[in-house]
Design a protein that fits this description.
Length: 565
């Protein structure tokens, strides 16, 4: 085993026996095999689109599109720990690839893809392998150390990894879009498969892999825009809304993850059943969508970020549904009332299928005690400062910035985690001037929105000092806001009084960072530590071009940020 795709990797080098996340070496090997299988499928998707007889609406190609997203999503940190589920994804990918391969070869008069350019990946065929053989394949051919040795160039492989992990995040976000709209975008899927095809090559092409990584960021911007639009079109335009953060008497179900559509179906099925529904973690912004908050039994938000779930889930008096990442190996006290959905997988945990039938969850909630009374006084947190809500306030922001009433705008957010040095982001936010504005999103916002020094603070013009823009994917709102402010102030994004401090953990954050870099945004503080897969030479390249850096002393960093550095 060698896994270093997330920030929490062991000793900041790599997990080699078991993942810090809890992933076994067996599951890790199967995920490595699955990733190679997806690359192989992608090569055939690229070939299919170049074959005149295969139209882009071809049902086999669409099947390959959907499977690319879902199978990739299952390899992200804290998503799927089930070896059985991962092996099943491999077989699905191999089966669809065989269908597509047959069509391509027939349409090309028997011509295959150029296998020599892509090593063993193009020709791999794992359809009839046992789980043990699939695991062995990962250990022998697909592991990080094996692929690194095959490329034989640390810096090129580092750039390959940057692109790989960023693309995993893109596929996860695109899978969310698919969950909302029920189809994939041909332009986006073409780009995803082309990027995968480049990543499949063992040729140490530094310039090519760098361009590929930046393309990941560009495609991610398209995907985030699509997800933002899908949420708004399906659930209504989000609006600033106070969400209750204290319990209400009654039976209860808790929903964690990211998928708003799953929550909508649960709310429909729980109507009139005497069961209240609570959001957890990244589901908090659900309270800002008109179609969701119209359900009176969506009563509030319970808990904080994903890393606290072993305590928060244990004390919640009802069943818990985890729609997407992040999930952890559960404690025995709540394992029998934990349900997974979509790409999420844990052996021994009940899984809700694609039909979204929540009957078992509802019945279990009705049998449990629930909350015995209201917790008073009731507390609330306002969420929903989507770009649509903030842009009308741009005039007030610009006026305040130009008059000196607003000293700086800080974007502080991203992924959270349990490492002690993540307190950097808490300290930085606490030390920002009283006349500055903080934009936050993702689970890292919990370090800010529950902070007593910042809670309820306002600017002189009445604007809240902290604007909760939503989930990690609502980084798109920050992009829109920055772009529009730059237009209005007739300057570049880098000339705005705006500083970025991004907390990263997993691959969605990697995609967002690549989006920022593809926009040319400079002076980003990325932490709590830089990714283990970035070599010194590649880091130097990113520093020279973007002045990307890790966090330092919060007070010194704040002073530099105030100076636009």
């Amino acid at each position: 085993m060698m896994c270093r795709q997330c920030e929490q990797t062991a000793d900041h080098i790599a997990c080699t026996t078991q993942g810090v996340c809890g992933k076994s070496s067996e599951t890790s090997a199967l995920q490595d095999t699955l990733l190679d299988s997806i690359k192989s499928l992608s090569l055939w998707c690229v070939a299919a689109r170049a074959t005149p007889s295969i139209v882009r609406e071809d049902p086999v190609l669409e099947k390959a599109n959907v499977l690319t997203l879902k199978a990739t999503f299952s390899t992200l940190t804290n998503v799927n720990f089930s070896s059985t589920r991962i092996a099943d994804y491999i077989r699905q990918v191999e089966s669809v690839k065989d269908e597509l391969k047959t069509k391509v070869i027939a349409g090309r008069g028997g011509e295959s893809v150029n296998e020599t350019e892509y090593g063993t990946v193009a020709a791999m065929d794992l359809r009839d392998k046992t789980d043990a053989e699939l695991e062995e394949y990962g250990q022998t051919y697909s592991g990080l150390d094996v692929r690194s040795a095959a490329m034989n160039h640390d810096d090129a492989f580092s750039l390959n990894e940057i692109g790989t992990y960023g693309l995993k995040g893109v596929c996860a976000y695109a899978s969310h879009v698919y969950q909302m709209v029920g189809k994939t975008d041909p332009e986006i899927m073409t780009a995803i498969h082309e990027i995968y095809a480049k990543l499949a090559s063992p040729v140490p092409d530094i310039e090519g892999f760098l361009a590929n990584a930046l393309r990941v960021g560009q495609v991610n911007a398209q995907v985030l825009a699509a997800l933002d639009g899908a949420h708004a079109n399906t659930l209504g335009i989000p609006e600033p809304t106070p969400a209750r953060t204290t319990a209400v008497e009654g039976k209860a179900i808790l929903v964690s993850g990211h998928d708003m559509n799953d929550l909508y179906y649960l709310l429909q099925q729980t109507e009139g059943k005497g069961v209240n529904v609570y959001t957890h973690g990244e589901m908090l912004p659900a309270h800002s969508y008109p179609k969701l908050k119209a359900f009176p039994h969506l009563v509030g938000n319970y808990g904080t970020a994903w890393q606290n779930q072993k305590f928060e889930f244990a004390s919640f008096p009802g069943p818990i549904v985890v729609t997407t990442n992040c999930i952890l190996e559960p404690r025995r006290v709540y394992k029998d009332r934990l349900y997974s959905m979509n790409e999420v997988g844990l052996d021994g945990v009940q899984h809700i299928g694609s039909d979204r039938d929540f009957t078992a969850v509802i019945e279990q909630a009705q049998q449990m005690k629930g909350f015995p009374r209201d917790i008073t006084p009731a507390k609330y947190h306002t969420t929903g400062f989507n770009h649509r809500a903030v842009l009308p306030l741009a005039g007030k922001v610009i006026e305040a910035a130009q008059s000196g009433a607003l000293s700086r705008i800080f974007l502080i957010g991203g992924c959270d985690g349990s490492q002690w040095n993540r307190s950097y982001f808490t300290t930085l936010a606490e030390q920002t001037p009283d006349d500055s504005l903080i934009l936050t999103m993702g689970c890292a916002k919990n370090r800010i929105i529950h902070n007593p020094e910042l809670e309820g603070a306002t600017l002189a013009n009445g604007l809240p000092r902290v604007l909760d823009m939503g989930q990690c994917n609502d980084a798109y709102s920050a992009v829109v806001l920055a772009t529009e402010l730059a237009k209005a102030m007739n300057c570049s994004v880098n000339e705005l009084p705006l500083s970025f401090a991004v907390s990263h953990l997993e691959q969605k954050a990697a995609a967002v960072i690549l989006t920022y870099l593809s926009m040319g945004i400079k002076n980003i503080r990325l932490g709590p530590s830089l990714p283990a897969y970035i070599t010194p030479n590649v880091l130097n390249m990113l520093v020279q071009k973007y002045n990307l850096r890790g966090p330092g002393d919060p007070a010194q960093d704040l002073q530099a940020m105030m100076e636009g550095k």
